[in-house]
Amino acid sequence: MHDNGHGEQDDVRAALDWLDQEFHRPILFAGFSFGSNVGMRACCGDPRVPGLIALGLPVVAEGRHYSYRYLPTCSQPKLFISGDHDQYGPVAEVEAVVATAPEPKQLVWIQDADHFFVGKLDQVQAEIIRWVKQNFVDGSR
Question: Can you give the pTM of this predicted structure?
C-alpha cells in the first residue's frame, strides 16, 4: 500500500536493520524513481550507508510533487543518474534539486534516455560501476 513515502521509509529502515544484522557490512543504497526519493530520505545521515545512488529522480509525476528538503544535510557521497528526456524529472528541475545537495555529489545525464532508461541500461550500469570504483574501491573511502 502506498503511504506517500512515510511507511515506505520505515520499510527501507527495516531493510537496513536486517542487512546490518545479517552481514555487518557497509550498505550502498540505490533506488529508482519513487524509491530513490524514499530511500535517500531514509538513508541520508545513516552511518551504515556510506553512499547513495538515485536513478530517475522524480520531481513531478502524475500530479505528485516530490520534496527534497532533507537533501542539504545529506553528507554521504551521492550519485544521481537521470535521462535527459525524463518525463518525471526534467533537466532544469533535477539540476535545481541536486544543487541543494552538499558535496560529494555527481549528476550524470544519460543522453536520449527517458525515465525508465529504455535501451540505456548498459550506460546506467557503467556509470554506477565507475562511481563505485572511484569512491569506494580505488578512492580513499
Answer: 0.93
